[in-house]
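Supplementary Methods, section 5.1.

A reviewer requested that the exact input to the structure prediction be made available. We therefore reproduce it here, unchanged from the version used in the analyses.
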Amino acid sequence: MLYSFVDMAWLGRLGSEAVAATGAASVFVWIAQSLSLVNKVGCEVSVAHAIGRGEQKEGATYSGHGTTLGLLMGSALMLLYLLLAGPLLGFYQLEPHIHDMSVEYLRIVSLGLPLLFMLVAFSGTYNATGHSKVPFTISTISLMLNIILDPIFIFVLDLGVRGAALATVIAQVVGILLFLWQMLYCDQLLGGVRVIQRLRRAYVLPILRVGGPVALMNSLFAFINMSLGRFASQYGGHIGVLSLTTGGQMEGVCWNTAQGFSTALSSFVSQNYGAGKLDRAKQAFGFTLRLALSVGIAGFFLFYFGGERLFSIIVPEPEAYVAGAHYLRIQALAQLFSMLEITCQGFFYGIRRSLPPALISMGGNLLRIPLAIFLMPYFGSISTLWWIIAGSSMLKGLLAGAWYLVEQRRLSCALA
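The structure derived from this sequence is encoded token-by-token as follows.
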């Protein structure tokens, strides 16, 4: 998400319209990232379970299937976006010149989707083996390259939103090359992984079974966010879309930090659950929850008291950063609940039960649409939309915590 965040930060110097254009397109990038979780989570859990059973060769096979699936899925989505970028972005009903900028950005960024899908599969393998520093380091290098290239392409070469998209794709190319070099020639991870291999049903189905609900959950979240973006456009114009999309990117700093802890929890729980050590998995959950809640507390203070200053870094226009700060203040109230939900997701993924968190997330997010349909015309204020989003996030956190307690009792009884 920081790729899009950095793009918007530089494009904010061109004005709020450029940020709104990239923000609308970034939702479709978000959909792509969500779909890539099929092979990422599938790799993380399947490889970790194989390691827990002491079967490294099987783990390497799962890893190769994850990257191969990623390449195929990313290529298919790239073609879809190249062909249908205009009609897809027409859903937002933006002003024509903003719509055209958004289409340009999405078409160029889509060229990197096959690489994105492979990158997350590589990350899943490294996370599963406990070497999360490797994807972190490579992602940081790619991000720093993106930060350097953005102002050159946007301002020096005067390419505008096209420059931001090109910088992102180039950074992803460098990232995939670094991953290939590290995995194939430096680490010889899992005794050697064939990155591209013939797909076999015995390995594809477990990856899809574990990663599918997670991808569906996150993809549905992105589609729902598109629908909410339509409401934001109707009641707040391009400033409303900017507040929703850019504000969501800022919240992503907290979400993704907690998601990193949750990913570690998932791998730890997977290995210990596979080895029959449930007590260690429970202890890890408690520790991870404390870490995630500390992130939520920091997010609350940052968004509630510093939202205006934070937004002004991205878009220096007063109308834009005042509206964006209003969004962040309301969402600040839901941060702790979101941290609880994300931590519970990591535990459920680790025990190969990705359906419960998917049901909670999809149900809570879907609730936003009928609430917006009925309440927005009645109150007539975009603030209503922001409260709907925050309220549903609180509900999801409470439900996830309750379901975790029920599942923990069930597992304890089963082992007893």
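The chain has 15 helices and no strands. These observations are discussed further in the main text.
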